[in-house]
Design goal:
Keywords: Hydrolase
Protein name: CoA pyrophosphatase
GO molecular function, one term: 8-oxo-7,8-dihydrodeoxyguanosine triphosphate pyrophosphatase activity
CATH class: Alpha Beta
CATH architecture: Alpha-Beta Complex
Strand content: 35-45%
Pfam families: NUDIX
Enzyme class: hydrolase
Number of helices: 5
């Protein structure tokens, strides 16, 4: 009987600690625009991988072309953020999480700027573990879907920096480059919190 890989141990730690984790929740989130995303983990060939999508280029979309997690705006019919994450994931990737996996916990709310207006938007990430194989059927909002090994994200040598500017202001931010794909911003913040549970 083989021993567990480092990544398998890491996933078990994440699941165990998510069960005890108390995410930061914005008490005022019910009065602002809300979104939810799904951080989907799978086990394949002794590796743990996380699904990320590259958003399609769309004029007027502040996240156009960015690496992100499946998800989107909460609809009136969505009773909870979890329902939003499941619905949006199915729409964007064709993965029906209620059949293919299960939610293993949630992470802290992140405050973001919305597509329009001055009011902030609260984004809630939910973590899922797949228990069956899935195929990706991306819709028009997704340019690409890619599985990224957890070992890549856990390797400190893969951590890099980038310059981000707005007007005359330029700041240095952390990021990863997975091939030509740049992972940064809100998505990186979510990954950092998830990996902090290892």
């Amino acid at each position: 009987m083989r021993g567990k890989t480092v990544e398998e141990v890491a996933l078990l730690h994440i699941i165990e600690r998510l069960g005890k984790f108390k995410p930061r929740q914005r008490w005022w989130r019910r009065w602002v625009k809300r979104s939810a995303v799904a951080i989907i983990l799978r086990e394949l060939n002794d590796q743990i991988e996380v699904l990320m999508i590259k958003r399609a280029d769309r004029e007027g979309d502040p996240w156009s072309g960015h690496m992100a997690f499946p998800g989107g705006r909460m609809d009136r019919g969505d009773i909870t953020g979890l329902r939003t994450a499941i619905r949006e994931t199915e729409e964007e990737t064709g993965i029906y999480l209620e059949k293919a996996g299960h939610c293993i916990g949630r992470l802290s709310d992140i405050v973001s700027r919305p597509h329009s207006g001055r009011q902030p938007m609260v984004v809630t990430p939910y973590a899922f573990r797949l228990h069956t194989a899935v195929s990706i059927e991306a819709n028009h909002e997704v340019a690409e879907a890619v599985w990224i090994p957890l070992s890549f994200l856990m390797d400190p040598e893969e951590r890099q920096t980038m310059e981000w500017g707005s007007g005359k202001l330029t700041i240095t931010l952390p990021c990863y480059f997975f091939g030509k794909r740049r992972i940064w911003g809100m998505s990186l913040k979510m990954l950092d919190e998830l990996l902090s549970l290892v």
